[in-house]
Specification:
Radius of gyration: 18 Å
Helix content: 25-40%
Order of helices and strands: HHEEEHEEEEEEHHEHEEH
Distance between the termini: 40 Å
Shape: globular
Largest sheet: 8 strands, mixed
Bound molecules: adenosine-2'-monophosphate, calcium ion
């Protein structure tokens, strides 16, 4: 692994330590899934333990750094300069159903700018990572976005809508409109971080999703950008960490995809 940045090193160490347990837990979910009890509570404890291990590793190296994590919320909130953003299991429903499509996602920002990102799929043993200015990697190889130029031939991913969404109909409508413009059916794999990683390494030509949380996408944004892709938001909000509606592409199909999304006048959040 060609990791020679201190921040990526911490992410890597924390992630690998947590992943050991997560892989074991996933095996347990596979067993529980077929039992009458079901894996419900077990999954939330896997989530919390993964998060705890990662937070401990980060705070051991940088005790005063800020952290935003899906379950634990904010830690050291007064530090406005350095902040780590953690999603301990992105793709929780997949994990819960013993579907091997989930990831640990960790981002690091300085002065509200994402500098490093790491996304690890423990089941496929795929580690995606990037640092500003140094390119994006999958395990030992440099990755690049795809070279697809037309939306029509593109493979796209999306996700949602979430159960409580107030714009469900608009989201479905958007899906229909975009579907009409692509030949390959749109994928919905259920882990936004891995969807972004897929854009970064050229498996997907583009990905869009509304109403995400910052921890779903923080690491993915830098990985896609460093792989030569384009990350964009559909929000009016100025602060990047408060934006919820994402479009990430290989950059070549970006305008075509955005034009369809904008044409339908979905209420911008
Ligand atoms: P999660 O698995 O960590 O909840 C699924 O479409 C993707 O959207 C996943 O990355 C999922 O993250 C994310 N997501 C964020 N908020 C969600 C919500 N309220 N309901 C379902 N998925 C959500
Ligand atoms: Ca998530």
């Amino acid at each position: 692994m060609r990791i020679n940045s201190p921040k990526l090193n911490i992410m890597y160490k924390a992630c690998m330590k947590a992943a050991k347990f997560l892989i074991r837990d996933f095996g347990e979910v596979e067993n529980l899934q077929v039992s009458s009890k079901g894996p419900g509570d077990f999954v939330s404890s896997a989530d919390t333990r993964t998060e705890k291990i990662i937070i401990e590793e980060i705070l051991r190296a940088y005790p005063d750094h800020g952290i935003l994590s899906e379950e634990a919320g904010n830690i050291n909130q007064k530090n406005k300069t350095n902040r780590w953003i953690i999603d301990p299991i992105d793709g929780t429903s997949n994990f819960l159903n013993a579907i091997p499509q989930f990831a640990i996602s960790i981002g690091y920002e300085e002065n509200n700018q994402i500098k490093n990102g790491l996304i690890y799929d423990p089941i496929k043993n795929e580690l995606f990572f990037a640092e500003t200015g140094n390119g994006a990697f999958l395990n030992n190889s440099r990755i690049r976005v795809s070279k697809k130029k037309n939306l029509r031939n593109s493979l796209l991913g999306t996700g949602g809508p979430r159960s409580g969404s107030k714009i469900k109909n608009e989201i479905f409508h958007e899906f229909v409109e975009i579907s009409k413009n692509v030949e390959i059916p749109i994928r919905k794999y259920g882990s936004a971080s891995l969807d972004m990683a897929s854009v970064a390494c050229g498996r997907f030509d583009g990905f869009w999703q509304r109403e995400l949380n910052y921890w779903d996408i923080a690491a993915g944004t830098i990985i896609v950008k460093e792989a030569g892709g384009y990350v964009d938001f559909l929000d009016r909000e100025v602060d990047e960490s408060k934006k919820r509606n994402l479009v990430a592409t290989n950059s070549l199909i970006h305008k075509e995809l955005l034009d369809i999304i904008n044409k339908k006048n979905i209420e911008k959040n």
